[in-house]
Design a protein that fits this description.
By secondary structure, this protein is an alpha/beta fold. Helix content is 65%, strand content 11%. Helix 3 packs antiparallel against helix 10.
């Protein structure tokens, strides 16, 4: 995902043009606004270029003895109106174009957000949240800058330069236009060369900024762990080392900018001096009037500002493109798991699940499942037990299609889950995971997440079934109580009950309990086990468990060992076999017997 800080310029330019072309549809959506904005832009620049011409007439008129009161007043009023129009048209243009810019930012941000959610679990396990969030933040900010400054600074500046050069060429000696063009070409060439070099520094600075932000967010998300081990200073030093490298890159960026500005100012100063010397010489010879001298001087000042700003805008556009580069690279991340072109909606009338000779590995050198086959008939409960790392939780991830199997297939009602839409598949499955992570919102929101359109009565009923309603209403803010970042304001058992309530509210045809009661005390576990058995009635249920006492009522128990099904049968049948399951059962009974009472 992370790109090299130095790329061939041809590839960079191609990527920049692709980025610019990707913004065209957002402009076409508001084409009338764009046309009106461009018209106002042209009117603004015409008014701006007309100001020095009127000023020349005012000065020349002041030298005449006749009409000394009438003509200058008329011209001065016109001068004032042109000044007003040059600003007024510009402000109207910004107001008209505001919708275009903000809508583009919104659409692209939404597109990236939706694409991130469409990527596989593998991508999200590898990603660094802080860096990704900073890339998106910088990228969306760059879109607004790119649209506004490309259309309303680069184009009008070039238009103004062209108009000024044309006036100088028509009204005066060709040397005036020649010096202007030569200065312009040298200025643009210098700016392009130096800015391209500075982009390497900018990309490096962005990389280091994202890394520092990743470190900071990762540390804050693990606040409790930092406190447990007293590693506040260690975390501060790690963060400071990242910021130290960013500081060095930022200093290089700033000093190189200072040299660029100095070079640009030198080129402009030389051009202005040459033009003023030429104009002064012609005034002294009587070929030009004082008004002409003032006209050229004002033109040069007006030309100097946009020309100098053109350099700034080009630099910032290149910076914006660099900022957007990483955000748009997220859109090019490959979707490891995608709907087939002819994917159909899953039919879940009876919801039978079947694993057929499934083999799977997270990496080529780390195979997790080997030739796993089992059935969960509609309305039956199948439990999977085994040691940690045996591949139990991988089964639920594959059933949800977070990954695709390398060999074999998974069927729901005889339909290969690779041939149905992911949305319809996941809508049919509810899960209570081992590690429940909640949104930093209210308890009500987190339960309602199972079915956002549910009524309040349905949400309360789900909470009651999960035995958490009484706890919620005992809180000062009740269902409106905030759970904190990742639900840290709740205990493990309380979070688990919220997850159970959420799964109950979803009312799925297939249920997965992945260590669903592992965080509960014995009393709460027994109460919830009865409710879990009740809601599992007439539903196809997969129970992944470490504590064997929670699965004794399963229709079938699968014993996983090193990615294979070592044993299968009911609780009684497995005990009678006196193999791996029986050893695990006896060991857990012994541990429960030896566990001290508190």
């Amino acid at each position: 995902m992370r790109s090299s800080p130095i790329r061939p310029s041809s590839n960079t330019n191609r990527a920049d043009w692709q980025t610019l072309r990707s913004l065209v549809p957002y402009l076409l959506e508001f084409k009338w606004r764009v046309i009106v904005a461009m018209t106002l832009l042209v009117l603004s620049k015409l008014a701006n270029v007309s100001v020095p011409l009127v000023l020349k007439e005012i000065i020349d008129a002041m030298d005449k003895t006749k009409s000394v009161l009438v003509v200058p007043v008329f011209l001065i009023v016109g001068y004032g109106l042109l000044r007003l129009f040059s600003t007024l048209f510009g402000e109207l243009r910004d107001a008209v174009f505001a919708n275009v810019t903000q809508r583009a930012i919104r659409r692209v941000a939404l597109q990236v957000f939706e694409h991130l959610h469409s990527l596989s679990l593998r991508f999200h396990l590898d990603r660094q949240t802080g860096g990704v969030s900073r890339d998106i933040e910088r990228g969306t900010r760059g879109i607004g800058f790119l649209l506004n400054f490309t259309l309303f600074n680069i184009l009008p500046t070039l238009l103004e330069i062209g108009l000024v050069a044309l006036i100088l060429l028509k009204k005066y000696n060709a040397w005036f236009a020649g010096i202007t063009f030569i200065t312009l070409l040298i200025y643009i060439a210098f700016t392009l060369i130096i800015t391209e070099w500075r982009m390497i520094v900018r990309r490096t600075m962005n990389d280091l900024d994202s890394k520092a932000n990743t470190r900071a967010i990762d540390s804050l998300l693990n606040y409790e762990t930092v406190k447990y081990f007293g590693n506040e200073q260690y975390e501060a030093r790690r963060y400071d080392r990242s910021m130290e490298r960013w500081e060095a890159a930022a200093v290089r960026n700033q000093t190189s900018l200072a040299w660029l500005n100095a070079g640009q100012s030198t080129i402009i100063a030389i051009g202005i001096t040459a033009l003023m010397l030429l104009a002064a010489d012609r005034v002294a010879k009587g070929v030009m009037t004082v008004g002409d001298l003032v006209l050229i001087n004002v033109f040069l000042i007006q030309l100097y500002m946009p020309l100098h700003f053109l350099g700034f805008v080009y630099r910032e556009i290149r910076h914006a493109l660099a900022d957007m580069e990483k955000m748009f690279s997220l859109l090019h991340e490959h979707r490891e798991v995608a709907d087939a072109p002819d994917a159909s909606t899953l039919q879940v009338d009876s919801a039978a699940v079947k694993f057929e000779q499934v083999s799977f590995s997270y990496a080529p050198d780390r195979q997790i499942l080997f030739d796993v086959s089992f059935d969960i008939p509609a309305g039956h409960k199948v439990a999977v037990v085994g040691a940690s790392g045996a591949g139990k939780s991988t089964l639920s991830r594959l059933l949800f299609r977070f990954y695709d199997v390398q060999q074999g297939r998974i069927l729901v009602n005889g339909q290969d889950i690779r041939h149905v839409t992911q949305t319809s598949l996941r809508a049919a499955i509810g899960i209570v995971p081992q590690d429940t992570v909640l949104f930093n919102d209210t308890i009500y929101y987190n339960i309602a997440y199972g079915r956002p359109d549910a009524t309040r009565d349905e949400i309360i009923a789900a909470a009651q079934t999960a035995h958490i309603h009484e706890f919620i209403v005992s809180l000062p803010q009740g269902y409106d109580s905030m759970v904190g970042e990742r639900g840290l304001k709740l205990s493990g058992g309380e979070k688990q009950r919220v997850a159970i309530a959420r799964a109950i509210l979803k009312n799925p045809a297939i249920l997965i309990f992945d260590e669903a009661t592992s965080a509960l005390d014995s009393k709460s576990e027994k109460a919830i086990q009865a409710e879990l058995r009740a809601i599992a009635q007439n539903r196809t249920t997969l129970v992944i468990a470490h504590r064997l006492s929670t699965v004794v009522d399963a229709d079938q128990i699968l014993v996983m060992d090193k990615g294979r099904i070592a044993e299968r049968g009911t609780h009684r049948e497995l005990l009678a076999q006196d193999k791996l399951y029986a050893q695990m059962w006896n060991l857990q009974k012994q541990e429960e017997h030896e566990q001290p009472a508190y």
